[in-house]
Amino acid sequence: MKNHIITGIFLLLFTNLAFSQYFTLAPTGFVSKENLDYTVVEVAGAKQQELYDNVLKSINSLYSNPKEGLTLVPGQAITLAAYQHRGLKTSAIAYYDVDYTLSFLFKDGKIRINSPTFNAQIMNYNGTWNKMDVKKFYFKGNGNPKREKSHQFVNAYFNGLIKSILEKSTNIDNW
After folding, report:
1. With contact defined as beta carbons under 8 Å apart, do 41 and 13 qualify?
2. What percent of the chain has pLDDT over 70?
3. Which of 62, 83, 108, 140 falls 20 to 30 Å from 52 in CA-CA distance?
4. Can you list the pairs that 79-85 forms with residues at least 24 positions away whose Cβ atoms lie under 8 Å?
5. Residue 119 in contact with residue 99, Cβ under 8 Å?
6. d(Cα 115, Cα 145) in Å, to the nearest integer?
7. What angle do CA 143, 16, 119 make, to 5 degrees?
8. What global pTM score does this model have?
């Protein structure tokens, strides 16, 4: 009976995740729909420790060497620092390597996701690195996106990372 209740809770979470856009990149960094630097996902009836354990298991199953980038406050918070070679596509032929950080905090029935942070860089032809100035690359002086496709891609990239972790956490013990 308990497993059916837990499965039901996670199915409700899963349906909410399917259409989620957690953050949008703004000139100041990622912001939620409420213009905050975090968003909260409600998981009715789930205990803090259960949410923490499932997200941690999810990260461990999705990343090849997560322990290198994990900072844990047992039962309360998970911070993942990761690197993706050629992670951000910026044009038809240019990809930037990206270092990013995702943070999750837990309470009974809630997962708080802090705004992702990231740095991106590309290797020049002479072997030096060119670091992306995010504000200049993605935004005009008035704060509107410069290239809508690039802006949509970076939003989809980070929202997709968060979504994959949360979706995996909903069925990590369902085997």
Report:
1. yes
2. 87
3. 83
4. 79/103, 79/104
5. yes
6. 19
7. 40
8. 0.85
